[in-house]
Amino acid sequence: MPRIRAAVIGGGGNGEHDVSLASAAAVADALDPSRYEVVRLTIGRDGSWPGGLAGAVTLLQGCDVALPIVHGPRGEDGTLAALLDLAGVPYVGSGLRAGALAMDKWVTKLIAEEVGVRTAPGRLLTARTAGGYAWSGPVVVKPVAAGSSLGVALVGAPDDLPGALAEALRHDDRVLVERVVEGREVDVAVLDGPGGRIVSPALEIVADGFFDYAAKYGGGTTFLVPARLDPAAGKALEAAAGAMFDALGCRGVARVDFFLTADGPVLNEVNTMPGFTEHSQVPRMFAATGMSYPDLLDRLISDTLA
Fold this sequence. Notes:
Layout: E1 4-11, H1 17-30, E2 36-43, H2 52-61, E3 65-68, H3 79-87, H4 96-103, H5 105-114, E4 122-126, E5 139-143, E6 153-155, H6 161-171, E7 174-179, E8 184-192, E9 198-199, E10 203-207, H7 213-217, E11 221-224, H8 231-248, E12 252-261, E13 264-271, H9 281-287, H10 293-305
Parallel strand pairs: 1-2, 1-3
Antiparallel strand pairs: 4-7, 5-6, 5-7, 8-9, 8-10, 8-12, 10-11, 12-13
């Protein structure tokens, strides 16, 4: 039986370049060489493709499937999916629409409210409107379209707000300011395709302080999976994760992040291309169901080619 020619795309021209490289390398190494011929493609920090864009598209068109393991803007936001669609290359994961909607935290928030998933009270600000924001208590400041908590700050005092807004505006021209939610940080992953839907056990993030970029990738954070939840909380998280997956039009796998409060789950964000090393949250969650990392990748590829 001929091997499947699988292109694994990593890197990218954004602040998540190194995180993407780690995910892409792990994915490429985990694919069974008896089943897959792996073609590795790395997008440079400046957004350039090896051999130029035209040459990369030609190479991709010679593959059976692509795994676009590129986090953040100009990757996870649907732009890479659009390129693969135009090139006629089947690919793992969400398409242009879902990627663009999920990357935009403000639009995700509006959609969540329409389908009955709670979000934190918040406001959308720009460089023009940021100066008029009236302090009303501790907030989280975040760029609308960035990942890996880049530019995100927990602001507990009004004097710290201008600096946090300025930093967030370095990463995006729109900023979301949300009221701090007191609750446990809990993630749920949804895997969906022709093979059926699997909602993972919940994973709880236990961080020493704010779960920012340094906490995510610098160690010192504990992941508890499955999270210790009562049955009602587990069902509420599963329902909310499924509702967001469907409302955004996700495909393949997505990670849906929540704060679990006494009144139920509050949506934080949706990741259509989450971190994907073997030790990242999504593979850990599915490992708790008995699905190994290579098996998860096999499932994603087989669903794409079905």
